[in-house]
Amino acid sequence: MSLELFIAKRIHFSKDGEKQKVSPPAIRIAIAGISIGLAVMILSVAIVIGFKKEVRAKVIGFGSHIQISNFDSNTTFETQPIAVSDSLFDVLNSEQGVTRIERFATKPGVLKTDSAFMAVVLKGVGSEYDWSFFQQNMVEGEIPALSDSATSNDIVISKFIADKMDLKVGDSFLTYFVQDNIRARKFRITGLYQTNFTDYDKLFLIGDIRHVQRLNGWQPDQVSGMEVLVDDYDNVDEISDNLYFKLLQGKDKYGASYYTQSIKQLNPQIFSWLDLLDMNVWVILILMSLVAAFTMISGLLIIILERTNMIGVLKALGYGNVGIRKVFLYISLFLVGKGLIWGNVIGIGLCFLQKYFHIVKLDPETYYIASVPIELNFFYVVLLNLATILISFLVLIGPSYVISQIHPARSIRFE
Known about the structure:
- It is a single chain.
- The protein has 415 residues and is α+β, with helices and mostly antiparallel strands.
- Helix content is 51%, strand content 18%.
- Strands 1, 3, 4, 5, 6, 7, 8, 9, 11 and 12 form a ten-stranded mixed sheet that branches. It has a two-stranded antiparallel sheet with strand order 2-10.
- It folds into two domains: 3-58 and 277-411, no CATH class; 72-256, no CATH class.
- A hairpin with a 5-residue loop joins strand 7 (172-177) and strand 8 (183-193).
- Mean pLDDT is 89; it is low at 15-22.
- The chain is elongated, with a radius of gyration of 32 Å.
- The longest helix has 40 residues, at 24-63.
């Protein structure tokens, strides 16, 4: 053990290991500054990561990671078809990272009951569709069983639509589709989902793709598009670009051109909003770092001034400024360590409480989520701890130079 560390321990701890009562208010404030700052930073990062993950999952649940559609389609749900073929599947499956490929078709219509009507979009899916997203958000009933052999009239709708139209599981209703002639389809509700993503909850009915194909007069191999799911969201842009160039010159057997878009391109306003949240996190991190640094600097200066007499004695014995500075930096690191322990306990503890008990609620109409989401990433927790230690050490180097201004002759008499 170095002499500086030994002296620092003797100052910070009594012989029996109990903490000396040295400047208790300053020390407590310094430790509290570190603890509160780290706890707030852990909470901020966990909340923003959780919020982005939850909202992103809802958007992807309704639209997948990547969509392949007709180049001539507009931004409405009344789409132009593309033909599904083995060659198209081969191109999509050949791209590394692609995990699932699903057909879909959309058709806007009007849901009507005896007492009300509402504009909706019928999203038709095939038997290969992954229902896991809607299964997780199902509040009543069950997922419809779709097959390749027969058209199913079973459908799932959102709880939002069911409440507005006074419908429940097991009810049947008519939906009208405006074309050259108005055509109607009768559906039976098998389940109600609730994602709290109101923009989509108030819009989509999920049912058999054959209904849309017949309403539009399409062939059995024609669909609005293909939904592509990938194994890692971080690779969405790269995979989307690769598929875009692979399919750029391709055409289906009816002469339609393929157009590839990522979920970010399909919903730019949502993902731009999510990206802005990162700026909020950086502002919070900087503010909390400044608060912690200020309290640590204040604490160190108070401890140095209180130990002026001891510093003079050490200098009179021939001990240099560098060695004495190390002593007080060690003391500061003890305080930082204690602050980190409490900060982690408070921050991680609050994260677990919110994650499993949903104490803080949100308005789903505004935030798309019923409670504050938490995604605790321990890599970021470790990174925040290391950054706090580094910043604390760097900001304390400057104040420790005060020691060089203390003169032995005057400080030994200092009380």
